[in-house]
Amino acid sequence: MLLIPCPYCGKRDEHEFTYAREGHIARPTNGEQLTDAEWAQYLFMRKNPKGVHYERWMHAKGCRRYFNVARDTVTHEIYAVYEMGQPAPVIERENGR
Amino acid sequence: MTQVNRLPHGGRVDSSKPLRFVFDGRPYEGYQGDTLASALLANGVVLVGRSFKYHRPRGILSAGAEEPNALIQLGQGNRSEPNLRATQIELYEGLVAESQNRWPSLTTDVGAVNSLFHRIFPSGFYYKTFMWPKTFWMKYEHFIRRMAGLGKCPTEPDPDRYDKLHAHADALIVGAGPAGLAAALAAGRAGARVILVDEQQEMGGSLLSDRQAVIDGVSAAQWVANALAELRAMPEVTLLPRTVAFGYYDHNLVSLMERVTDHLPPTSPEALNQPRQRLWRVRAKDVILATGAIERPMVYIDNDRPGCMLASAAQTYVNRYGAAPGKRAVIMTNNDTAYQVALDLVDAGVSVAAIVDARENAEGELVATARARGIEVLGNHAITRVGGKLAVREVEVRRLTGDGKSVSSDGRTITCDMVLSSGGWQPTVHLFSQARGKLKWNQDILAFVPDKLLPGQNNHSVGAARGAFALTDCLVDGFAAGTAAAHAAGHTEPAGSTPVAGAEPAHSPMREMWVMPSGKPLGHDGKHFVDYQNDVTAADVALAHREGYRSVEHLKRYTTMGMATDQGKTSNINALALMADLRGVAIPEVGTTTFRPPYTPVTIGAFAGIDKGDFLDPIRKTPLHSWHEQHGAPFETVGQWHRAWYYPKPGETMHDAVNREVKAVRTSVGIVDASTLGKIDIQGPDAAWFLNMVYTNAWSKLEPGRCRYGLMLGEDGMVMDDGVTSRIAENHFHMTTTTGGAARVMAWLEDWLQCEWTDKKVYLTSVTEQWAVIGISGPMSRKLLSEVAPDLPLDDQSFPHLSFRDGVVAGVKCRIFRITFTGEATYELNMAPSYAMHVWRALMQAGEKYGITPYGTEAMHVLRAEKGFIIVGQETDGTTTPQDLGMDWIVSKQKPDFLGKRSLQRSDTKRPDRKHLIGLLTEDPNEVLPEGAQIVAELKDKPPMEMIGHVTSSYYSPNCGRSIAMALVKNGRNRMGETLYMPYDGKVVKAKVTEPKFYDPEGARING
Amino acid sequence: MVETYQRRSALAHLGLVARAASSSTAGAGVIMSEVPHRTIVNVRGTASDVAFSSAVQTATGLALPSAANTVSNGGVWQIVWLGPNEWWITGPDGEAESLIEALRANFAGQHAIACDVSESRAIIALKGAKARDVLMRGVSLDLHPRAFRVGQCAQTGLSRANVLLHLVDDTPTFEIYVLKSFSDYLWQWLEKVAADFNLAVEA
After folding, report:
1. Closest approach of chain A CAs to the CA of C127, in angstroms?
2. Contacts of C157 in chain A (CB under 8 A)
3. In CATH terms, is domain B638-648+655-675+771-863 a member of 3.30.1360.120?
4. Of B164, B225, B654, B938, which has the maximum CB count within 10 A?
5. Which is nearest to C163 in space by CA: C122, C115, C102?
6. Distance of alpha carbon C8 from alpha carbon B874, whole angstroms
C-alpha cells in the first residue's frame, strides 16, 4: 500500500486514490486532420517503462483533485508530485536503480 | 505417569497451575506457561506427526515459528483449525489437539508405504508421471490428494469474531529480545510513539532461555522484567505480545496479527468477550527489525527421526519451560553455540553423551569448559546413522576424512534418545526481504545478512537480525537504532545510557559443512532431509542439479523446497548451499529465495475483521428504503444501491407482480423511487461549451427551463453513459447520469476540466443525494399531480414534455421534470430527501382512487424495453457506438468537436457490418429468451457454430402479450425479417429480427 | 407549506431518540448521536483571489481557512476546507437559500459558485474517551491528538464509506459527514465497533 503525498491534503494511503492514466498526453485539437494511425497513437499507445513513470492520480476519497506523480515502477519510490499543468520534472537517479 | 520429562527445577512455567489437555485422544497435563510442544515433551511425547510425502514419523524440531514438523489440528467442530505449529500454541485448560497426515493412527500409518517406494517418489515425480496421459490426471489427483494432505478445514462457519485497525508509530520494533527491548527503551524514553511486538506470549526473546547473561549487573530475566515495567509505564509505548509482524509492504506499512484470545479456552467468557484475533496495519516512520536469528539444522542421514532437534530448541525447552526433550543427548555442531546448550543441559540434569563437532580442531573457551565439565567432545566427527524408527535410540559416529566429504570405515555407536544439531544461525531477514531489501552473503557466519534497503522503505536491522549475535552487540545496536528513530521523528528527551552486557565467551570460527557424509551415496540406506515439511532431501537437490534445475527459482519449483507452510525457514540456506556446492560456485551465485508475506500463516477471519455479511460491501439506501421494505419489496443491487425490485401482493409470484405493475403504468399511474440517478450541478460561463464537448448532441440552444437527452462517449467513440440534462439558467445546468455510472461520469468530467480544459470556467458539484426523485408515470399522472400541486399549471403549453418547473407538491418545494423512461406521460419530482417520505405518502394517498401502483426496477426495465430505450451497460458493453445502437440521430454532424467524435471516423468504427441493436420476436410468444443467449444464423448439428451476437435484454411484455428481446447482432440492421437461432438448454429457439421497438413506436403516449 | 414534523432525518428509521431516552451515557466510552439537519453550502472559487475571499467573508463574517484540512469557526458559520478551490460553509438548518443568495450577489463578475448540498449529507457525532479507538478501526489516517488536532478536518475513507471527519473538541468529539445513502451502513458499522467500548446513544 503506497503512501501518496497528495499535493493538497498531504500523505494519504493509496486506497484513497484512483490511478487516472499516463500523464502529459495532450488531447490533439486537430483530430479531424490526423490519420487513423496518428489518432491511435494518442488514443491507445502508452509507455510501460521500468523506472520513472509520469502518471496522473486522483485523490478520490479526499479533495478529488487530479495531480501528477513521478513514480518508479520498480521500487514505487515517489520522486515528485506536482499540479496539473506543470511540466514533468527531470528525475536524476542513481545508476543501476 | 505424568510429565515424566518435566525438570524438577527451572523454567518459567507455573507448576502451581496445572492444565489438562488431550492429544490424539489421550489426556495429558501441562503447566500454565507451556506451549503444546513443551507440554508434550514434558510428557515424554516425541512423535507428533507424519511427514507430507513419505509419511515419515516426525518429532518437534524447534521451539518457535520456524517449526516444520509439529503441525497440529487444534480444537473441535467449527473452531477446528489445521496446520498450527505446536511450538506456538499456548496451552490452556481443556485444549484438544490432533496430529495430522496419518491414518489410521500416528504410530501405524498406511501412507508410510510411500517411504518404501521412495525410488518412485523423487522430486518432480508428480509432474513427470501423472501428467501423462493427460486424461488420467483426474484419477491420479484423487489418490494423491488423499495421501499427501495436511490438516482438515472445518466445514461450519467460524463462530469467532475478529478485529482490524490502523495504527501509526514513530518506531515499530519487531522482536522483544535484547535488541528490541533496548530499542524500545531508547525510543520510548526519548518520547517517541513506539509499538513493540513479539510473536511469543512473553517478551524477552532469547533472554528468556538464557541462564548466563548479565545486563546492567542483573540477570537477563531480571533485566527483561525491569525493561518491560518501564515500557508499560510509558503512555506512548504500545506493547503487543502474541503478535507476529507477518507482512512488510510498500512505504513502511507493516501488518501484524495479534492473537488476542488464542491462549484462552475458546468458550470461556473471557475469550467470548473479545475478538479472537486482531489485524494491525501499522504505518511506521521507522521499523526496527530486531527479529533475531533462526538456527539451521545440520543435514545428516535420517536427521528427521523423532528426537532430532535444533540445539537451541532443546536449550529453550530446558531453560524456559523446564521440560527435557529427552534423557540423553548427542549434540552435532559446526560452531560454538551448541556448547552452551550442552552446558545448560548438564546443569539441568540432562545427560550429554557426546558433542560431535565437525570442526577439525574444535578449541576455544566454550569447548574447554565443556571438556572440563566431563562432556566428551568428538572433533572432526560426523553422525553416520540414526537408529530407531518412532524415536531416536542411538547414533553411529565416524571420523571425517580429508576434505570432509567422506568418513572413516569404522564407527562407534552411542546410545541416546535425542540428537541436537546446530549448523549455524541465519538472521531472520524475512521482513527486511519482504520490504525488498537486498541481502548479502557473510562468509564468517555462513549466512545472508541485510544489505541495501529499497528506496522508499525505512528500516534498520539490529543485533542478531543483522548477524551481530553477541549480546553486547544486540544491546548497542538496538539502543542506537531506537535513539535514531526517535530523533528522526523529532523526539529528543534524554534516553539514558546503553544497557551493558556482562562478559561473554569468545566464539571460535565455524566450519562450512552443508551435508554430513554417511559413508554411502546420498539417498542410500537413509535420507538427509533438507526441507522437513515438504520432504525434500539432499539427494533431491542433487537430482534437480543433474536435471538442470540449478537456479534457486528452478530448484524451488522442481523440488518444492521452501514452498510448504513454513516457507523453508530452516531449509532454504541448506538447500542453496548444497546447490552451490554441486555447481562449484559461491552461494550468492545460486541466488536467494524471495521472501513473501506472510511470515507465518494468517487466518482469513483476521483479514475480514467485522467486514463480512452486511458489512462486506456498504448497502446504499434511498430515503424511501424503509417504505419499500415495509411493503415487502425485494431489493435489486445496482452498484452499492439497493433498489426496490418489485412489490408482490400476497400470493403473487414475481412474474405476476411485474406484469401487474407494468400494466398499471400503461393504463393508469405508477410510482417509482428514482432517487439513485446520478445528478451533477454544472455552473459557469463555459457550461454550455462543456456540455457540447462531453455529449454527442448540441446544447447551446437549449432554453432555460428545458431538458434534453444526451449520450456520452468515451474518447474511443464507445457509448459510456446517458441521461437527461436540463438548463436551469444561462450558465447553470443540472445533469443526470445512470445510477451505476454516477461516480465514473463525475470523475470523467472532472478529469477533462482539471487536466485538459483548465482555462474553461466550469464548476461541477455532485448533487445525487441532494435530491430524492419520485417518478409518476402513466395516463393518469397529470391528473394526480394536479391534485397534489394545485398551483402548478400542467397543460402541454405551460409544461410541455422535456421541460421542468419549480412547484410545491403536498406542501413541499419540488423541481419537477417532465421526461419519460416509460413512454407514458411522466413527471419526475425532485425534492429534499428529508421530505421524500411525506411526498411519496401524499401521492399514494391521492392516487389511491386511480389505483396508483408502486413499481420496481424490473417493471421499469420491461417498460423501457417495450419502447426500445437502451440501458447503458446492458445494451452496450464498451464496444458499442451510437451507430451500433441505431442512434445516429443524436450524433451532431455540425459540432466541430466532442469527445469520441474522431474515433467514430476510424475504419473499424465505420464498418457497416458491426454488431447492431435489433429486436427479436420468438416464434413461440411465451418463450422468454435468457439474457446473454448466443445467436447463430447458420444452425449446425453441434458446435462449433458461428456466434453472431447475443441477447442483451429479454422480458415478457404483458402490454404486447408476448415476449420481447433486444440483441446485438452482427450486421443486424440488414437482417430485418430474418430468422435467427438461439441454441441453449438442449433446444433451439427461433426468433425473427425486428426493429427494437415493440410498443407505441410513434411515441403518441407521452402526452397522456 | 408542509409541517416540519413530516421531515425525516437520514437516520430517523433507527429510532435513535427513543433509544437515547432509555440509554445512559454515564461511564460510556463512546457516545453516538445524529446531528439531524444542518446547512451545507458547497463553494468553489480561487482562494488567492481577494475578491472571492472577501465575498465569502462579507457573507459569513469568516475568513477562508488558511491551512489545508482545517475549519474556521465563527459561531454561526463554519468554513470547512475541502480542497484547494473548494469549501463547505456550514451553519444552522434552513439558511442555505439566503446564504447562497448573498454569496451569488457577492460573486457577481467572478468565476465562483455556490451550491446547496445540505440535504445530501447525514452527520454522525462520535465522542468520548474511546472515540479514536472506534475510528482507527476504519480510518487509515493518524488520529493521535498530536497529529490530528481540534479544528482539523479530513476527507477520507471510514471503513467503506467516504466521509469528512471534523474534530470539534478535545473530548474528543468527531463529527462525521457522510452521504445519506451510506449513513445507515456507517451507523451500523460504528455501532458494531463501538460495542466493545461501552457505547451509549444520545439524542
Report:
1. 23
2. 15-16, 61
3. yes
4. B164
5. C122
6. 35
